[in-house]
Amino acid sequence: QVQLVQSGAEVKTPGASVKVSCKASGYTFISYGLSWVRQAPGQGLEWMGWISAYNGNTNYAQKLQGRVTMTTDTSTSTAYMELRSLRSDDTAVYYCARETAQQLFDYWGQGTLVTVSS
Amino acid sequence: EIVLTQSPGTLSLSPGERATLSCRASQSVSSNYLAWYQQKPGQAPRLLIYGASSRATGIPDRFSGSGSGTDFTLTISRLEPEDFAVYYCQLGKTFGQGTKVEIK
Fold first, then answer.
1. Can you list the positions of beta strands (E) in chain A?
2. CB-CB under 8 Å, B94 with A47
3. Distance (Å, rounded) from C-alpha B90 to C-alpha B56?
4. Cβ of B45 and A108 within 8 Å?
5. Are the Cβ atoms of B37 and A103 closer than 8 angstroms?
6. Positive/negative CA dihedral, B29, B30, B33, B37
7. How far apart are CA A19 and CA A22, in angstroms?
8. pLDDT value at residue B65
9. B36-76 tens-digit pLDDT
């Protein structure tokens, strides 16, 4: 069965960086892209960006350009999302999600809480 | 950029009642790419409907989707206790703001 398993919760100080991992199993990793979606406490879902697991092409949300980097390691079927220069409003649960050709998210990771606090 | 507006913000209903959730796009969109998700507290979203009207694997038939152009609807025919949650529509990189279905 398809599974996306994310790394554990993180606590960071403002200005620091965080790198969240998402290990995929149960399907051919390079056959799908992966998106990252975040959710601030009590808020809705915000798309952060997408990466092709096939060739590493990326597409980032404009508001995060310059602060976010998404990568994959095909040898371990793992995707990574790094966010730099963290601010308090980056506090959120971060999800990875498998994206289909119809641009929908059919499988999700369990989420990783990133807390940014001094 | 397309904006998705969901209404109402909160829907207060009793188990067994019918729920009708709306998602309106700021411009006409292809229904092929319109999806609905359910999210319960502390859980990741779950895909319910894709292509505006197709149920995802394992989704009960009390959930149905319809619509085209700018107006889309998610209907839950008879609410079960486990259906009380937040529902989001999605198109590409855009999500609606969500509708919370709560117990009346």
1. 3-6, 10-12, 18-25, 33-39, 46-52, 58-60, 68-73, 78-83, 92-99, 105-108, 112-116
2. yes
3. 14
4. yes
5. no
6. positive
7. 10
8. 98
9. 999 999 999 999 999 999 999 999 999 999 999 999 999 99
